[in-house]
Amino acid sequence: MLSALVTYAAEEGATHNPLIPAWYDIIWSSVCFIVILLIFWRVALPRMKKLLDERAAAIEGNIAKADEAQRKAEAALEEYTAQLADARREAGEIRDAAREDGKKIVAEAKENATAEATRLTTAAHAQIDAERQTALVSLRSEVGTLALDLAGGVIGETLSDDTKAQAVVDRFLADLEASETAAK
């Protein structure tokens, strides 16, 4: 049988070119191609187009979301920068106010200390003057008594008249103060 096929192929091959198909093969191949083309055109192509459109929409949506996120990030950055600048300005104002308050407190403390020192000095001077007056009164009384006793011893009489004795003591003390003033 093999030999029959080889002889048949040799007879056909002499009249027919093996590179060119037969006319019925071309027709049936064209019909199959057209059917496949129509099915692809009607079914596969719209589905692929729909799929590609969905992917494009998703990509565009993601790009839009990314752009929106970028805008929000930039807005947040600007807001953060503004808040930071405000915080720095406010910190500077607080620092300046604290310095001013510190200066006021120091000035107030100095003023209070000066007033207290003045008050203490005045009180001390008043106390010294009061003690001086007390000492003078005490000294006058003692000096007067001593002077009267001495005068009584010198003249041999007792001076019992208080007004007379007081006048003598006052005159003696005035003379004593005058001599101290002249010595200075």
Automatic annotation (TrEMBL):
Question: Which of UniProt's keywords are assigned here?
Answer: ATP synthesis, Cell membrane, CF(0), Coiled coil, Hydrogen ion transport, Ion transport, Membrane, Transmembrane, Transmembrane helix, Transport
Q: Classify the protein's membrane topology as the record does.
A: Single-pass membrane protein
Stretches of the chain forming a coiled coil according to its record:
59-97
Tell me which positions the record assigns to the signal sequence.
none
Q: Where in the cell is it found?
A: Cell membrane
Q: Which residues cross the membrane?
A: 26-45
**Superkingdom of the source species:** Bacteria
Q: Which SUPFAM superfamilies match?
A: F1F0 ATP synthase subunit B, membrane domain
- Does Transport appear among the keywords? yes
Annotated family? Belongs to the ATPase B chain family.
Q: How does it assemble?
A: F-type ATPases have 2 components, F(1) - the catalytic core - and F(0) - the membrane proton channel. F(1) has five subunits: alpha(3), beta(3), gamma(1), delta(1), epsilon(1). F(0) has three main subunits: a(1), b(2) and c(10-14). The alpha and beta chains form an alternating ring which encloses part of the gamma chain. F(1) is attached to F(0) by a central stalk formed by the gamma and epsilon chains, while a peripheral stalk is formed by the delta and b chains.
Described purpose of this protein according to its UniProt entry = F(1)F(0) ATP synthase produces ATP from ADP in the presence of a proton or sodium gradient. F-type ATPases consist of two structural domains, F(1) containing the extramembraneous catalytic core and F(0) containing the membrane proton channel, linked together by a central stalk and a peripheral stalk. During catalysis, ATP synthesis in the catalytic domain of F(1) is coupled via a rotary mechanism of the central stalk subunits to proton translocation. Component of the F(0) channel, it forms part of the peripheral stalk, linking F(1) to F(0).
Protein name per the record: ATP synthase subunit b
Q: Source species, please?
A: Microbacterium sediminicola
